[in-house]
Fold this sequence. Notes:
This protein has about 450 residues and is an alpha/beta fold. It has helices spanning about 15-30, 60-65, 70-80, 120-130, 170-180, 230-245, 280-285, 290-300, 310-325, 345-355, 360-370, 425-440; strands at about 90-95, 100-105, 115, 140-145, 150-160, 185, 190-195, 250, 255, 270-275, 340-345, 370, 390-400, 400-410, 415-420. Strand 4 and strand 5 (about 150-160) form a beta hairpin. Helix 3 runs antiparallel to helix 12 (about 425-440) and helix 5 (about 170-180) packs across helix 6.
Amino acid sequence: MPVASTTTLAPRMQSRTQHTTLLCAAVALLILALPAAATAEPAATGQALPGPDVAFRGGPVAEHSSRAISRGKLKRKLNQLARRAPGSSGFYVTRIGGKAGGPVFDRNAGHTRKLASNEKLFTTITALHRLGPKGRIETRVKIRGRVAAKGKLKGDIYLIGGGDPSFGGGGVADLAEQVRKAGIRRVSGRVIGDDSVFDRRRGVPDSNWGPSPYIAPLSGLVYNGSTYDGDPAKEAARAFRSGLRDAGVRVGGKVKVDRIPAKLRKADAIAEYESPKLATLVRATNKDSINFYAEMLLKRLWATPGRKGTTNGGVKAVERFARSAGSKVKARDGSGLTSGNKASPRNVVRLLVAAQRDDELAKPLFKSLSIAGKDGTLANRMEGSPAAGRCRGKTGTLTGVSNLSGYCRTKDGLVAFSLLMNGVPSTSAAHDVQDAMVAQIARLR
């Protein structure tokens, strides 16, 4: 089984305390409290890359040279570095604007490679396009029955998920307080969690659709990143019942997971909670490479009032959008966990270029990427090099795969790049090659 892509691995059974620790880093970046989710760490064999790569020891990154170089010189340096990468690698670099836009470097750029977490670029750009950077995902509360004297609800109360991957304690407390303000002081019936906005497949193809050690269980209704081994919707409903009691609303019935009756689907909600803006969710997804968020957003792409959100449906949406943007991808999931996610370096760059030419997508996507030497999955890479603070990227790691795609701000304008390295026996050596290449790209004049 492949090892999941970049950032720290947290198995499904990991304690909520550990997940809360992971969340703190995201909060510092997002200025919003988002629940943590299971992610994964790349495998590293400790071996050096074969052939010429054995002699590679960091190259230009160690020089810390920031002198600008011409397009011709950059091409020569990138070609030298590319020869040190495994044969199953491809590279593409192009200027988006500046004095003369167009390709700067092309080596095996048309051959498809395994994407690993670079798949998140396709997922999140599609989500920004379809749902909008300012879009939010709602979790709602509805009731069945009548409210009698003294605020007693003679019936059930429903917590209806909308597929918000960030729903947690803050959302529960907010909804519970709204229920109390609506005049309800007691619920005689049950608290029912409705997760029917999505199908009930908990995993992705990599785990044969079942639970996976590399991602928390997927559901249309989750709580605190779904960091537990059980039914996500039931866990959310339990948390909501506790939240109601904390807000002063007594609950007599038990917790259950079920779909809201058809006659209530168009009824008004008595409480609603909105997720952070989609741009914020995308930022968390890409900077910290959160697999759970990516898979939830993928399902949300396919969800409509009359259609369940599914991984396969989301994949269709992603592939269609890529084609409309002049790119192409073979998608299997939203996070890159499944090894069947593939695209060529040229098509990754085409997607990045198309996003930068769309005023709605350009800024939120750019801000979502890790900054070299500063934050996210690139916090400890390219420090002190010309790329630090000037280049942003999305990492991607599976067993035998190490990728890096993104942008550099150069003296000649914005440059997009995709470095897809397959057949990699050593992640650290692959990072050395990639970091050296990006440091050189940052010097372009």
